[in-house]
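Loading example: each entry is read as two labelled lines plus one structure line.
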Amino acid sequence: MKLSGLAVARQRESAHRQAPAHNAPPARKPQRSFLVMNMKMSGSDFTPRRRFVLRDSLLAVVARLVLAAACFALLCLTANAADRGVSFVNDVMPVLTKAGCNAGACHAKAGNGQNGFQLSLLGFEPQEDYEQIVKKARGRRVSIASPDHSLILLKASAQIPHGGGRRLDPLSAGYAVLRQWIAEGAPGHIDAEPQLDTFEVQPGKSSVARGGRQQLQAIARYSDGSTRDVTPLALYESNDNAMAEVSEDGLVKIQDIAGNLAVMVRYQGHIAVYSASIPLGAPVETVPPAKNFIDEAVFANLKQLGIPPSPVCDDATFLRRVTLDIAGRLPTPEEATSFLADTASDKRDKVIDTLLSGPDYADYFANKWTAVLKNRRDEVSDMAGNFAFHAWVRDSLLANKPYDQFVRELLAATGNILGNPPVAWYGRVTEPNRQLEDVAQLFLGVRMQCAQCHHHPFERWSQDDYYSLAAFFTRVGHKPEKRGGASRAEQMIYHKRGVATATNIKTGQALKPAALGNPMGDIAPDEDPRLRLAAWMSSKDNPFFAKALVNRYWKHFFQRGLVEPEDDIRDTNPPSNPALLAALERHFIAGGFDLKSLVRDITRSNAYQLSETPNEHNLVDVQNYSRHYPRRLPAEVLLDAIDRLTGTQTDFANLPAGTHAIALPDNSYNRSTPFLKVFGRPEGESVCECERVQSSSLAQSLHLLNASDIKGKLASSGGRAERLAKSAQPVEEKIAELYMAAFARAPRAEEVKTAGEYLAEPRTGSDGKPLDAQRAARENFQDLIWALINTKEFLFNH
Amino acid sequence: MHLDRTRLPLPVALLCAALCASTALGQAVGLPAPRLLTTMPMGGKVGSQVEIAITGESLDGVDELVFSDPRLTAAPKLDAAGKPEANKYVVTIAADCPANLYEARLMTRLGFSSSRVFSVGALDEVVRGKPNTSLATAMELTMNSICNAFTSARSIDYYQFEGRKGQRVAIECAAKGIDSKLTPVLVLGDAEARDLVVERQGGVLDFTLPQDGKYSIKIYDLTFTGGPTHFYRLALREVAPGAPVVPQPSTVAVNSFSWPPAGLPEKAATAENEPNNDGSRAQKISLPCDIAGSFFPAADVDEFEFTAKQGEVWWVELASERLGRPTDAAIVVQHVEGTGDAEKLTDVAEFSDIPSPVKCSSINYAYDGPPYNAGSSDILGKLEIKRDGVHRLRLTDLFGGTRSDPANVYRLVIRQATPDFALVAWALHMELRNGDRNALSKPMALRGGATMALEVAAVRRDGFDGPIELSMGDLPEGVTACGLTIPAGQSHGVMLVTARADAPRGRRSVQFTGTAQIGGAAVSHPVRLASMAWPVRDHWSESPSPRLLADVPVSVSGFEAAPFTITAAPGAVLEATVGQKLTVPLAHIRRSELSGSIMTLKTFGAGFEGVPRFEVSLAADSSQAVLDLAALKTPPGDYVISFYGGAVAKYRSNTEAAGGAGASQPADIVDIVVSEPIAIRVKPAEKK
């Protein structure tokens, strides 16, 4: 199998886990593309370096022209400011923001800014910033009599020591704006200034060839009817630096990856998005037939981008893939043999239905959900509650409880854990703020954390939105009120009568419940506001709820969400295939939030069933699903797979023999089973699936090569190696069984030959003497199984 | 020594605990008490004979197995040679014995054991024989039968049965309701044991089979614990379509002692009439009323509308949790003014929870109250009408936002004041050593010379605040009982049950009664007795399972005597004039070596709980208590008091002490010591 695209995928995954850094100054030096590095690593004959040289020389002139235009625009701004007097809010603040002064890592740092100079994040609170600059520190930050000796200018231009370095060139237009404002007496007049009404970027979208450039123009429109080109002052951020980088002046430099790209443009609390379609431009003569709406959307996108998809995978690959994805296990040799021999045209659909009706599906997806629902064991007494909660999730999935009902039961849970297990979540996530944050991120795909302390820097969520959402959780009562020595399982949750409000810590205002800007009206003191929230979430026109789920599940099957990260859905982070996401969302809602139906739709599609083997064009594609993206088996699945292949069972404390790792109820087994920790099983500390470590590491390689538990499984008495060594079957059949168990396929002729020769080799003991035939055979089988375990074909779902 | 844990910072408490560890580790809590822990099987069919095997603690000298109903009798099982087999009995269930739960007890050398539930039903019963912890060894079940078994640790029990397509089956695993430690998970699967449906709440799995063939049933504990204490009764029944499924009988929670109020008809006069979920559709009622309804479906709101006049006083009582449902009812009564958009609602009263009449343990470092909660999430409160007009009563289940179970029923009664009371009692628990969190089952098995204290808690209804006298009748020979009155307006009393030092061996099911004067007439109610189902040594690591008993058994060992007895010195005149100090001379009777030199005593008795703790010498034969009647502000009258504390005996059973087999080193065991009741008189001051 070929896994050369994996490095690209891993790098990109790593890049994606780094959420857009709202607290960092704008990037000044674009980083070298991951893609370029990986293309070289993959041995492709593509020569990006040479192309860059040509392109750079050709576009250097354009870039200089753009820079000149930007400077001209800034000078115009300066000139405009000179004409009408410099506005603190409309002229000074944008300069400070562009210079990064009010970034979270600089003077907007929570607490006290830097050295007592505290600015609001990205200038969201201009009045407070004015006070800081003009009045605080005994007014020495500005010197109206001698503007050039103002501390703010001396520091920003690094004429005196400044921890943040030089942020403004004394010769720059920004410096001139600040200086002029000070010279004019540092006026405030914030309320009297024209308000920034709308902000847009031009063009809003375009199609740009790989390696191409797109200059963006940022336009601000004010309440007095004026319009300003604020291109040099706006902040730009690409949602995928491997696809495109953006200069400080708004020049988008497209790299070599085809697909859809978004650039977030921010200016004074307003946000606009530029979307680029980057076609590969290869001929797409045929695509697999569309089996459902998913195929239609995926293949239409590929045609538009000119990315020819790989063909549909073979039966063995499909069976192994779909069994791993739905049931979290390898197909048994019997299942594989039966499936491969089946000639029915609908056998793939049938196996999907069989897998979905089985308990392994419930176990595997319960494992997924309980981690992000923080079912972790901190105390021995947590055990009963954790088991009950895990069982509730698992039973819900087994019964195919509609997703909206599942969430409602969790969100508005009352009673005690053993009587109503979703109550356990309130034992884990105890504060209203954490509750709203988890609910928003997990079920709505919205990250609200930033808005607790300030307006969300790249979203529309304000602190009022944050605390209005928190208000839903303010009537959650606990019995007993003080936990004492009572275990979590004995805690009870109830709706505490009263009017739900939460106080905005900034304004002190008591806010009624509102769901991401949607007011709920008056909620009577007797009504549990959480039920209102649950009803709003599951309403058919909710723009977040179904979208977040289908995107999460899409990622489960395709390794990459249509929106990445999967729980950060926002206008400024658009999906790679909006039509597909919308269609999935629509079908999921219309189907009554049926999770099994969603899985069925996804796995029945030819898009899901594409081969992972790239064609000459689509190796670089990592976001349009033109081929299947392989990924390492999750820790639990891999451990179970090794157990099945070696014919052994991992022993888990207090659980019956034969319990699979995917059925473990909480994180406590990570401590007793190092394998799970090494391979990244999450501890249930985070609501983010990114807590699961899917990347590879040296420790993992060493574990598979050296760890005693692996050796023990290989050499286990009664294990597969011993059984095969003792069996009188022909060696070819034994090899076939191993390949069927490991890969769900028959071995190829060369594999049979190689394995057969190895199995026939004599062995010697540590004393150099030949081992008896039986022992030699057993050790040879151990070696062969060990070798199979260490293949990428085994370690990866492909 | 007694440390007030509430006043110690945690580090100091931990240090103290560490310093005392050596003592604590070598010191058990609670003198041996006989406890019947398991029977196998746990029940039988009406009109049959059942062979049962028992296990327990301190069961030396068992001479009979008795039940709380005479229609159940037992005889030792005899072997082929006609000799009794150890721990085996043959139980005869009379044909007229109703299907229900009964208490089974053993009469041991120490007296009555704690009880274990014994079920009587109409279905055939079997006992699992061979291990059935795999599908290959699954036990075959016949339809309409009950299997008695227990789970094993880290195991799953497998059963199989033949079913028909369209056949409705009810599968139920009785466990918690029959005293088991098992939290059962009941899974119905296909022939290969692949899960079809799961029941984890102890309820009935009501399922219509999709096809002919074999089906599997899996049973295991939620956390895969097991052993003989994790017993269960698996019932497999065929049920006709549309017919109700009646669950197996279950024990009742402690707080259900206060339901129903006296004279309440078995069936409510009115049924809740849905839809009544909002004011516009409120069900019209008139007061008084008696309504049966249910919190169904999820987030159900039931509104009732009535007219009342200013100054009217009504009492509102609701039972749901006390009916065994996992609910938390809440009521808001509002005055309604205007109609339609102009409607204005004004809160009149809000009701939620019946507080425990006695502060129960908050499960902290050690006891700060009894491990019994006599309160409830039900409702009992006073409704005073402030204005004439229409009123609405809004009823919700605070636990019912997402649960849709029509079995979550309630009974709502609104009545004019009918003053009354209900009583429950349990054996006294107290902190006996640092970090003591025992929640032991304590059978009333009295050693000669022992006094056992029962705490009595009262739920008062409809404004009744008079004193309640406690009495116990039909006691075994040599046993006396003295109830310390529950004073007016209070909710806590004590019953002292004392066995004479030479009391003969005996047992009785006694009458335990509370009596009060209400409306000029004496009103009596039985006192329900509560007990722990298991001897829990540390209720941090194991949740206690208290429940009500079906009867009040009292027994005397006749073999073993209390290690230490405190009585009033014989012949002492215990009188004093109001405002003076009364010295109570105490006599100490030691029948065992004691550990330590002193014992701290507190005082029982209405108005005397404030007597400062005082120490007595364990080595001395006498001591005295001084009651400062001025400080206590004790009015003239006759009183009964008692002193109590904890003492460590170097315990050796009488058998061992006599050098019998198994004699061993004496064990340090701390237990509660309660003095015999002491009557005192406070005389009025002499007129000058």
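The longest strand of chain B covers residues 637-651.
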